[in-house]
Amino acid sequence: MGEFILSGSQNFHLQSAISQSLAGRCATVKLLPFSFREINGRPNFDVFNLDRLNPDVPENPSNPFEHIFRGSYPPLYDRKIRPSGWYAQYTQSYLERDVRSLVNVGDLETFERFLRLAAGRSGQILNMDSLASDVGVSPVTVKRWISLLSASYIVFLLKPHYRNFNKRLIKTPKLYFFDTGLLCYLLNIRSAADLELHSQRGHIFETYIVSEFVKACFNAGIEPPLYYWRDSQGHEIDLIIENGENLFPIEIKSGQTVSDSLFDGLNYWRELDKSDFGMLIYGGSESYRRNGFQVRSWSAV
Q1: Beta carbons within 8 Å of 126's beta carbon, 6+ residues apart
Q2: Contact indicator for 119, 183 with CB cutoff of 8 Å
Q3: Among 124, 160, 247, 250, whose CB has the most other CB atoms within 10 angstroms?
């Protein structure tokens, strides 16, 4: 029958351009910007075996904020392009070509304002009414534009975890950008040093870690079994990996030192779930165990 690999930078018109569905005869692979492991020539990690995984760290890992600021799009690594210039051109091309071809946006400046305001909410629970008010459009328009960003792999939504599956579909998700380099550009962050002192530093670091887990899932050919958890009292776990009936909680902190207070969320979850599994991912360089949990360097993800 032959073998064909068709690659492209977008999937917007894929179904409409192909006359047959090819159901059962083809596979679709989602290729996101490079993962940190791909950049360093390391194998993909198994999200279902984190508690048994011995973390392997690249030699002389760079400052996390240098990597987060640079982003992970391939041209930045094989062509040695300056990130700020490349992201400016990428954003402009995206607005002028993809957005105009898919939705009726009368004012591209309004859409770009929406894009930048959405960037300011990465790593946070998505309030579409608030975002719509800030942009100056209706919540229906914001919902349509969020769907557009998702379809073009600019953002993804992380659903809350509930034992009741129906609630996962109706409760408010968190918004994340796939690439932190693009995120930093949209937030007018000009350098890794600026990022390290930025008020959004924690949310951007969380965005980076969560996106690495999504990439690991896509690179393994599975849909991400990833969620966040938050109760009515404000207790929260940044990332939950669902493996059947087992849940693996992960807390994400951008600091480069670890204190006992960083485990408050995991300790609270341990009492609820009666489980000893759990991990803290932070901005430091060492990986070890503390308080019964794994402490994992960002560079070992």
Answers
A1: 146, 157, 172, 173, 174, 175
A2: yes
A3: 250
